[in-house]
Automatic annotation (TrEMBL):
Coiled coil: none annotated. The keyword ATP-binding applies. GO terms for molecular function: ATP binding; long-chain fatty acid-CoA ligase activity. The lineage of its organism: Eukaryota, Sar, Alveolata, Ciliophora, Intramacronucleata. This is AMP-dependent synthetase/ligase domain-containing protein.
Length: 667
């Protein structure tokens, strides 16, 4: 099948092993070129990249925050962005690093014969977060990231596992850290470094807890006068331990080294994003996640501007209007909200305005589906200029990642914002960027080709009937578990050798657990999940089997199949009642009554409280059936384990109905 896009291509001279595909690489690479390890400048550490930016873009704006003032009622008002240059920011980072070394604020953690100098960061995105991260990159320290959605128990676990001595944070996290120190008895947590302002009472509370208190500004000022020589990191030295949210236990610390970022930056040079010093970006996705940090360092390399949001995601549109970025990076959850708001405006339109909107949308959608065009010489000025203004009016390219996004929303927003929205796919273990689509590609439902920093292959999963030899209409459509290898691959999970061995095989391939299908043009489709863990459209991981084991503990339920889809925002469930118990203890036909459903929902609420489940882990819609899962129809294995793929096929119509007929992933 001919294509104008260079997606994944077989690596010349590579023969496939039995049970897997050939090795693929990016079609953006030359035929004899391996995946990149460094940017074109040849810099092999983040420090070298930053010092190059310091030299090339010294006087250019780098990091910006909105100016704050107070109105007559004492309420905070946010104004224009105030910028600091590359020279100013990197100097601050150097001075901060010197103070950290002089005061020995880092701790040294040992693992498998290696030692790491670590410091924690616990804050929303702001300049202090970034300066701390840069300071560590410039001095061979590594950051350990904490964030609110992990929860207090997970934060304690991370601080314990990494033996953190110091956490850099904003004032709103002081109480949580003091509790970890005093109530949980984490004695090695000794220092709090505050970003921004702090109340006098908070300082007193820190001191009563037997902890030391510093401000980041004071440390930077002291560092100006220090003569300490900072260590130079090497390519394979640790850059960060980035924790992924655990669904069946504690979070896992992903060890990423400097080479992960240098290979990412080198790949961005070749990717369709094409960023430059003329670009600007709003930083609001958590810097504690590798997705935002990958973007941060990619932009830093070319002298672009990075402006921080005011700290409230509900006011993102205000920040976009003030910053007017050229590159917008987001996740399906926010794109869906933008889609809903625009749809609301369209529905409210009346008369000639409504007709004009309909004509413009129909015309642009038809053009897009025909040739991938996202602009129109007439309708953009008449209709879509105001829609584009929701992102500030200057965005030239958007990127979406972390979870799939529906075709309808993607197409609609492309024509509304008058720019391409590139869909990416990645994992923390692979520095966030593994695949990306191309501008002008009118096809949806895939994640493009392998990023130029990786090789990719699919490995057979025969128990799920996914094979590298799969065919469709006489053409090979390889299917199997997606695996990557390259400079962006992680070194393993911190102090979790068994889990590392489960993920990285003996040949260095990282097994993602996702099932993919390679299209004839080399584009990758994500069609399933090997493990019973998947993401909802918000990016929230769900462990279905864990939930089923909890929910089936009531005598009202004989069997349950919890289903979630990455294009949908909630779970549904197929329930088989224990009719023997129900008939004995309730009136005839009770299991088909509304009272039964209410009792099941009440049971789910009990489970949520007892097992500390979040709201997304509770099925929103239910279908009750007397068709039991069994070995004969393949929905159960001989050991009575649920075969999820077969169960989905058996109850597909009911699942579709519970989702209101919406498309499911893989359709």
């Amino acid at each position: 099948m001919p294509t104008k896009y260079k997606y994944s291509v077989p690596d010349p001279g590579q023969l496939p092993r039995t049970g897997e595909t050939v090795r693929y690489k990016s079609g953006l690479l030359e035929e004899d070129q391996d995946p990149v390890l460094y940017p074109e400048t040849g810099h092999d550490t983040i420090k070298k990249i930053l010092m190059h930016a310091y030299k090339e873009y010294a006087d250019e704006p780098y990091l910006g925050s909105r100016e704050k003032s107070f109105d007559e009622k004492g309420e905070v008002e946010y104004g224009k962005y105030k910028w600091e240059t590359y020279e100013e920011c990197i100097n601050k980072a150097i001075w901060l690093a010197r103070s950290i070394y002089d005061k020995e604020l880092f701790n040294t953690a040992s693992e498998e014969g290696r030692k790491y100098n670590l410091i924690g960061i616990y804050s929303k995105n702001n300049e202090g977060w970034a300066i701390t991260d840069l300071a560590c990159c410039l001095s061979n320290m590594a950051t350990v990231t904490l964030y609110d959605t992990l929860g207090a128990d997970s934060s304690e676990y991370i601080i314990q596992q990494t033996e953190l001595k110091t956490v850099v944070c904003t004032a709103d996290h002081v109480d949580a850290l003091i509790k970890i120190k005093t109530v949980k008895g984490v004695d090695h947590l000794q220092n709090i470094v505050i970003i921004g302002e702090i109340e006098h009472d908070d300082v007193a509370t820190i001191e009563r807890a037997g902890m030391n208190y510093y401000t980041i500004d004071a440390l930077i000022e002291e560092g100006k006068h220090s003569k300490t020589e900072l260590d130079d990191p090497h390519n394979q030295d640790l850059f960060t331990i980035c924790y992924t949210s655990g669904t069946t236990g504690n979070p896992k610390g992903v060890k990423l080294h400097h080479g992960c970022i240098t290979s990412l930056v080198g790949a961005i040079d070749l990717s369709p994003i094409k960023i430059s010093s003329n670009d600007s970006h709003l930083s609001y996705l958590p810097l504690a996640h590798i997705f935002e940090r990958a973007i941060f360092f990619g932009l830093s390399t070319v002298g672009a501007r990075i402006g921080f949001y005011q700290g409230d995601v509900l006011k993102i549109v205000e920040d976009l209007g003030a910053l007017r970025p050229t590159v917008f990076i987001s996740v399906p959850r926010l794109y869906t909200k933008l889609y809903d708001r625009i749809q609301g405006v369209i529905k409210e339109a009346k008369g000639c305005k409504a007709k004009l909107l309909k004509w413009g949308i129909d015309k642009k959608l038809a053009n897009y589906r025909r040739n991938g065009a996202v602009t129109h010489c007439m309708y953009d000025a008449l209709i879509f200029k105001k829609m584009k203004a929701r992102l500030g009016g200057r965005v030239r390219v958007c990127v979406t990642g972390s979870a799939p996004i529906s075709k309808e929303i993607l197409e609609f927003l492309k024509i509304c914002f008058c720019c391409d929205i590139l869909e990416g796919y990645g994992q923390t273990e692979l520095t966030a960027a593994n695949c990306i689509t191309q501008p002008g590609d009118e096809k949806s439902g895939h994640v493009g080709g392998v990023f130029p920093s990786f090789w990719m292959k699919l490995v057979d999963v025969p128990e799920m009937d996914y094979l590298s030899t799969d065919m469709r209409n006489g053409e090979n459509y390889p299917r199997g578990e997606i695996c990557f290898k390259g400079g962006g691959a992680f070194h393993g999970y911190f102090k979790e050798p068994a889990k590392t061995e489960e993920t990285i095989d003996k040949d260095g391939w990282v097994h993602t657990g996702d099932i993919g299908e390679i299209q004839p043009d080399g584009a990758l489709r994500i069609i399933d999940r090997k493990k019973n863990i998947f993401k909802l459209s918000q990016g929230e991981y769900i462990a279905a089997e864990k939930l089923e084991l909890i929910f089936v503990k009531t005598p009202l339920i004989a069997q349950i199949f919890v289903y979630g889809d990455s294009l949908q925002s909630f779970l549904v469930a197929i329930i088989v009642p224990d009719n023997e118990y129900v008939d004995k203890n309730y009136s005839p036909g009770y299991s088909s009554s509304s009272e039964y459903l209410q009792e099941i929902n009440d049971w789910f609420k009990e489970c949520r409280e007892e097992h500390k489940l979040n709201g997304l882990e509770i099925p929103k819609r239910l279908h009750v059936t007397n068709e039991e899962f069994n070995i004969d129809d393949g929905t159960l294995t001989p050991t009575f384990k649920l075969v999820r793929g077969v169960a989905k096929k058996k109850f597909l119509s009911q699942i579709k109905e519970m989702y209101g007929g919406a498309k499911l992933q893989g359709e």
